[in-house]
Amino acid sequence: AGGNSEGSGLNQLDRPTDVLIGKETDSLIICDQGNQ
Fold it and tell me: Domain of life of the organism in this record (predicted)?
């Protein structure tokens, strides 16, 4: 999700609000308020 400006596509973010890191599942979760 970089270099594609904001929007609602799978490769875009629109007003990201939080980032979570799951240590047990080795995952990165981005909370995005505007992407519906």
Answer: Eukaryota
Q: How far apart are CA 29 and CA 9, in angstroms?
A: 16
Q: Which residues contact 6 (CB under 8 A, 6 or more apart)?
A: 12, 13, 14, 15, 34
CA gap 32, 18 in Å, rounded? 7
Higher pLDDT, 1 or 23: 23
Q: How far apart are CA 28 and CA 4, in angstroms?
A: 19
pTM recorded for the entire structure: 0.56
